[in-house]
TrEMBL record:
Principal location: membrane
Ranges for domain TonB-dependent receptor-like beta-barrel: 241-706
Species name: Methylomonas koyamae
Example GO biological process: siderophore transport
Keywords annotated in UniProt: Cell outer membrane, Ion transport, Iron, Iron transport, Membrane, Receptor, Signal, TonB box, Transmembrane, Transmembrane beta strand, Transport
Cellular localization per UniProt: Cell outer membrane
Superkingdom: Bacteria
GO molecular function: siderophore uptake transmembrane transporter activity; signaling receptor activity
Signal peptide bounds: 1-28
Name of the protein: TonB-dependent receptor
Protein family: Belongs to the TonB-dependent receptor family.
Amino acid sequence: MSLTKAHGGAPAVAATLLFLHSQPGAYAAESDSDTTLPTVEVKAQSATEADHGYVAKRSTAGSKTDTPLLETPQAISVIDNAEFTARAAQNITQAVAYTPGLLTGMFGPSTRDDYFNLRGFDAPQYLDGTRLAGANYANLRIDPYGLERIEVLRGPASVLYGQNPPGGLINMVSKRPTAQPFHELQMLGGSFGRVQGALDFSGPLDEQGKFLYRLTALGRGSDSQVDFSKDDRYFVAPSFTWQPDASTSLTFLSHYQKDDAGNTMQFLPYQGSVVGNPDGRLPTSTFLGEPGFDHYQREQFAVGYAFEHRFNRHWAVRQNLRYADVKSDYPVTFALGFVTDNDGVPVDYRTVSRLAGLYRDQAGTFTLDNHAQADFDTGNVLHKALLGLDFRQINGDRQRGFGFPSDLDMYSPVYGQPFAAPQIETLVNQQQDQIGLYGQDQIKWKQWIATIGVRYDWASNASLRTDYYDADTDSIDYAKPSYSSSRQDDAEFTYRTGLSYLFDSGVAPYFNYSESFEPAAGTTFAGTPFKPTTGQQYEIGVKYQPPGVNALITLAAFELTQQNVVTPDPDPAHVGYSIQTGAARSRGIELEGKARLEMGLDVTAALALIESQVTKTNEANQLGKQLTYTPETQGSLWLDYTQPSGALAGLGLGGGVRYTGSNYGDLSNSQKAPSYTLIDASVHYELGKLDRRLRGARLGVNITNLFDREYVTTCGEGSCYFGDRRNVLASLRYNW
């Protein structure tokens, strides 16, 4: 891409804004005299609506009910659209970068997916309360422009959401139709030739407001910091709400997205990226693949609905349904390591051998969540009870093929050497099912709130593998396929309990115990299927919502353990097999504060101190070692100030600092990615303060990694990944 694509864009939009505002009725006349304002009806904030600020008051993530965060006995971070838009987040990784206990950007500026580690474990992603699942490289990736908010639920969540790792999850909330008309146009351009346009229109379709619509769309063309790797996208998300009466709502949600990107995952060796190399440090733009072969293309769509009906003040039912389909085409070249001599010593520390892989994946996912809510009292004890049944099915196809391109000199690469293109060697068809029955009661007595939950899950995983490789002829023979199949069934109970006390001062101490489970594929030497891995967490904390101040502070301390971890079988007769005697532990303290102050200052601050280790394993070099991708210390602070009045009214400045401690990419802790500190900055101006005809227009410039720090995000298993370089984005946004 070239920056010349952006020429003329900003003046054209500015001229359009001037034209629109010069028309009769385009804006209400302003007066310098005192004016009596009309009465405004104030509505309670909904857990699925935008907060229009940094401080969320409610969330459904921790209870599946519309519950104040102060009354939820679990640490939850909510990143509203206003916050991640202020930082010009271009993906979910950037949107949640100021969240405690969450490692982001694990594999650098990936055009393929967003990857997270939360409290020492993988953090899966959800959309509108149901899992975003896929098949290997065919995963749905959600653009932040289509979201109202992002909720990070920290700690085990299996009682509400079924099979999950114990660290927590990330739930994204889609933009929904609004009763008030809303329109937005946006143009953005910046580093690496990025040119992007977006629109967001919403409002009622009839005078009664029973029919609402929303249309969100985005298109961009861009290169990336890695050579030969683009990052193009087209995204559209229409939605529609029908509200026949005050007790019933049906919202149809959908989106379509097409990504045409390159391979930004570099797979760099440790020498040259983290530690010294005789030939110096590798450039962060290093590309070890093959131009014309490597790319990542994805096409995804999703359709579904969110239904809610309240029969009376006691009973309500909700149903969320979604079908999603995603296809990916991912031919990629990996660096396997340095070319070595017969003794395994690198010949020159600059030439690497490579493997070419052809990955074609497809996944169709159906998710359904039904629950009934009963609000009642027993004497002076209030109950908010929930009974639900959810179902998820994933049907995936994975095609694989491999080839061996020529070795490559990393410092003076010569691309385009002929090699046999990979052919499809294997096809795997897989179906995963989960059915969960869950119940929960939120019990309130005076200022005490207790939360009790239980769930039972049935999970199955069936696969059929087709091999086209003929070992006798060392060739691919599609006429003589061989087949193998497997099936695994699991069932598990999980429990959860929590207790909070609400002081009149806005202080709410809490305690919770929660569990998780996750199926583990495979069998022992005896053929016994592995049991699910399980997790338990104890968490104590305190939340503080100062009276009269728009702020929320959360302090949490936790200890999380995981059992049934797969580890090598120590029996010398069982080489290559595993047993489930491994265990891990993660414990720490997290602090988060968010505030929107009357003086025009928005604040978000976070700190996480985590001690993690392998507590049981048959690998002697792993016992007591730190868990992968889990820094001991993380901290961040973001401030955004907008001048409310005076000659500089409408001018805003933002700045942030992010510190990430060192982390290991393997359980033996042999390769460490060093700590790093990054500085972000922004400046923005409301153009309406300059000329009333431009009211609703906002000009902004955002810079991430202001001082262009070169750093490695993670490094393990022989592959290292550079983090985001300095990125400058200029945007012009117009709302009316």
